[in-house]
Write a structure and sequence with these properties.
The chain has 527 residues and is α+β, with helices and mostly antiparallel strands. The chain is built from eight helices and 30 strands.
Length: 527
């Protein structure tokens, strides 16, 4: 059985390495007295345990407890998400694997005293109870981020290509036929910058493609054809699926990735999780995947090219007038591509993304703890449920306001943050409490949405304006739906999660991005 523990506040989830000290010390053989064990004086033991047999018994208990501790530690590290500074993001939900007493009673190991096979210290729930106790006490708030970063290392990649792709000069970059994916787990990470042509949307753009003319193979697609998110193609079945939910920012160096875990689960079940700047974009998708993904096509960057050398013409969108065709040619820059033939952990993805972003000049900003920076502002999602007024007060207490997504760029960034939350609705700083049907932002500026007067600012209301079904719907919330986010006017006394924004403490900041890299021939740097 499982229990879920949600704790609010900053940096209060702590890794178990520091939490648990074994009551059984490392056992050493006393060189002066044969057969006598030297142990910590704090450990109370019976005289018969000071024999050679007792040594083995204590070692058996010690090894088993170390295994239990390591398993719980691994489980927690897998669940925890960290920010760019290595601090634990607040408001996360973790699963603590409590066992029923019946299951505990069935735990038996050989080598215990007097032929018994059970011992009180074999109860895994002891570690869980101590975890909860330390979470509540907050004993290791300062050490945990640094300790986890030192403990977690990113394994050597299977392949790395410095492609320096630019759509103005590259139809595609050819990486040859040698590399392929079979039936193993894998992780793909790419450093990209979307730069759409003026007035032309990017749809179904191929970052990496190895798909033959008979549709065998795989493709890493960002942004996807319909959702403008991260997607992946895997053979004819299951085919092309959008795994992400958040739109990607334009004109900004971004680290996108996907973990395709085919070995954790049985019966051909895979867990596919997209990542943006090291953060998981949603909870991942479970999918049945059969066979391998190998293909006779070449591996190409920036476009889909089959084994005959022919480029894909893209697909038509029959929902639009004239059924226009959208070319899968990637518009923008692709600097690096990394592939591991294994599933990385969330923490490893975070570390890798942080290193790449720092190379491009996107360094951790001087934001308050738990906040994430975009341009000159810092944003944080709070999972605690509050009315609109209470959420306002909480943001004011931190020196800011409720978030104001006045542009698509800010909205896209907030969507990435909201995807980390289990909540589905979030207050933002927009309301018409003072003047009915005239909505004002938290900074006092008005949000225009009167289409009849051609007054339409950026917004994500359905049909570009609030429905205002009841006069009491004066406050605006972000609503997380299956494939997108929408704004909705709602009763201000509803309890929602919320998003705060505060000014960055930088002396100056700008939206400028680093110059694009000069394209060169792709080289496989570690294969």
């Amino acid at each position: 059985m499982e229990t879920w523990k949600t704790v609010y506040g900053a940096s209060i989830y702590y890794v178990i390495t520091l939490l648990f000290t074994l009551t059984i010390a490392d056992i050493t053989q006393d060189t002066n007295q044969k057969g006598v064990v030297s142990v910590a004086s704090s450990y109370m033991f019976r005289p018969n345990l000071r024999t050679a047999e007792g040594v083995n018994q204590l070692r058996t208990l010690r090894d088993y407890r170390r295994t239990m501790r390591a398993n719980l530690e691994k489980s927690l590290i897998e669940q925890i998400t960290f920010d760019e500074k290595g601090d634990i993001l607040p408001g996360q939900k973790i699963c603590l694997p409590l066992m029923s007493q019946r299951s505990v009673d069935e735990i038996k190991i050989d080598g215990l005293p007097h032929g018994t096979k059970t011992h009180p210290s074999l109860n895994p729930n002891l570690f869980v109870v101590r975890t909860v106790r330390n979470i509540i006490k907050g004993d290791f708030e300062k050490q945990v981020g640094k300790m986890v970063n030192e403990k977690t290392t990113v394994p050597q990649h299977s392949s790395h290509w410095r492609v320096d792709y630019r759509h103005e000069t590259n139809q595609s970059v050819d990486l040859g036929y040698d590399f392929d994916l079979n039936d193993e787990s894998f992780t793909i990470v790419a450093l990209i910058r979307l730069r759409p042509k003026s007035g032309e949307p990017i749809r179904g753009a191929r970052i990496l493609s190895k798909r033959s003319s008979d549709n065998r193979g795989w493709e890493f697609v960002v942004p996807s054809y319909y959702g403008q998110t991260i997607s992946f193609y895997a053979n004819i079945v299951p085919g092309h699926i959008d795994y992400g939910k958040s739109s990607l920012p334009e004109n900004t160096w971004t680290v996108v990735g996907i973990i395709f875990d085919r070995h954790t689960y049985a019966d051909n079940v895979a867990l596919i999780t997209p990542f943006i700047d090291g953060f998981p974009d949603g909870q991942g998708t479970y999918l049945e995947v059969l066979g391998n993904l190998s293909s006779v096509a070449p591996l190409t960057v920036g476009h889909w090219k089959d084994e005959t050398g022919a480029y894909s013409r893209g697909r038509r969108d029959y929902r639009l007038p004239g059924s226009p065709r959208f070319n899968p040619h990637f518009q923008g820059d692709i600097r690096d591509i990394f592939i591991w033939k294994k599933a990385l952990t969330k923490q490893q993805m975070r570390i890798k993304a942080r290193h790449l972003l720092r190379e491009m000049g996107r360094r951790p900003s001087p934001c308050p703890n738990g906040y994430q920076e975009l341009d000159c502002m810092c944003y944080q999602v709070y999972n605690e449920l509050k009315t609109f007024s209470a959420a306002e007060a909480r943001c004011t207490l931190g020196g800011g306001t409720l978030a104001m997504p006045k542009t698509g760029r800010i909205q896209d960034f907030l969507e990435i943050l909201m995807q980390q939350s289990e909540r589905v609705s979030f207050w933002i700083g927009l309301d018409d409490r003072d003047v009915e049907r005239e909505k004002f932002w938290a900074d006092g500026t008005r949000c225009l949405y009167n289409r009849r007067r051609n007054e339409t600012d950026y917004n994500k209301f359905p049909n570009s304006q609030p429905d205002k079904q009841y006069h009491t719907e004066d406050c605006v919330e972000e609503v997380k739906r299956k494939h997108d986010f929408w704004w909705n006017d709602e009763n201000c006394f509803k309890l929602n999660a919320f998003i705060c924004e505060v000014q960055s403490s930088k002396q100056s900041c700008s939206v400028g991005t680093p110059d694009a890299q000069t394209p060169t021939n792709a080289t496989n740097m570690a294969k």
